[in-house]
From TrEMBL:
This is tRNA (N(6)-L-threonylcarbamoyladenosine(37)-C(2))-methylthiotransferase. It comes from the Eukaryota. InterPro entries: Elp3/MiaA/NifB-like_rSAM, rSAM, rSAM_sf, TRAM_dom. GO terms for cellular component: endoplasmic reticulum. The chain crosses the membrane at residues 278-297. Signal peptide: none annotated. Catalyzes the methylthiolation of N6-threonylcarbamoyladenosine (t(6)A), leading to the formation of 2-methylthio-N6-threonylcarbamoyladenosine (ms(2)t(6)A) at position 37 in tRNAs that read codons beginning with adenine. Its EC number is 2.8.4.5. It catalyses: N(6)-L-threonylcarbamoyladenosine(37) in tRNA + (sulfur carrier)-SH + AH2 + 2 S-adenosyl-L-methionine = 2-methylsulfanyl-N(6)-L-threonylcarbamoyladenosine(37) in tRNA + (sulfur carrier)-H + 5'-deoxyadenosine + L-methionine + A + S-adenosyl-L-homocysteine + 2 H(+). One of its GO terms (molecular function) is iron-sulfur cluster binding. Pfam families: Radical_SAM, TRAM.
Amino acid sequence: MDVALPLTAVYSAGADQGHKEPTDCEMAKILNHPRVYAFLHIPVQSASDSILMEMRREYCVADFKRVVDFLKEKVPGITIATDIICGFPGETDQDFQETVKLVEEYKFPSLFINQFYPRPGTPAAKMEQVSAQVKKQRTKDLSRVFHSYSPYDHKIGEQQQVLVTEESFDSKFYVAHNRFYEQVLVPKNPSFMGKMVEVDIYESGKHFMKGQPVSDAKVYTPSITKPLAKGEVSGLTKEFRTRRENHLSAVSHTSAASPRCAASSRMVLRMQRLHHNCALRVSVGVALLALLFAFFVKVYS
């Protein structure tokens, strides 16, 4: 799930259309739902407030930290991913070091690092640019920090419920995800595809874990409620469903019990249309006769 800061209780620019931004508590409630991955992508872009101002972002680093800290407390184990732009115009060494400190502090398991590229016609393209060499070096330095820690080592030995969704690129494993959308590689057993499986985590890498199904693992389809029948509408209350069914039954009963009434009604409608058409024709005929009479009177008088 992706969100943009600020994540607050205030109305957004679209408030007059009834749109309201979700609050931190509402977002935490959603992420704690059993059918939602506890994963959130919150792009911070830079940990320097001065650079964020130059980017015209509507938040500061303190806002980002407040949201992340709150969600980590309310959604234990949540995965937070973020984006960083290296070398935005005006970024100093001090600005960059603040970003490095943020990554070292939070140790994001998923981090997208990009060098700034000036798009023609944008305000940033007209600003004084950071040299390509500096941008490249900062990207390398931040990548080095990112690869200096292992986010999943502490999970070795855990038992996790994972959802198997696809085959790995090397075709050696199936790819599954746990509650926090962390990638877990499992053996290629065709019966696992699309199913929930309980596994023991026995190995970890920078971007993945490996799991072995437990001996008595229950393999099942992840579904909380029974699928809806064809034509059934979700979100209806039991009371509304009952009233709707009773109404349909009454309409069906009336239609079946009164075929003669229906036929009589159709006959009445046909007679009414016929009467209307005859009256219209008589009116047109009378008007034409009046015009002819007036014409002859004018000619012979």
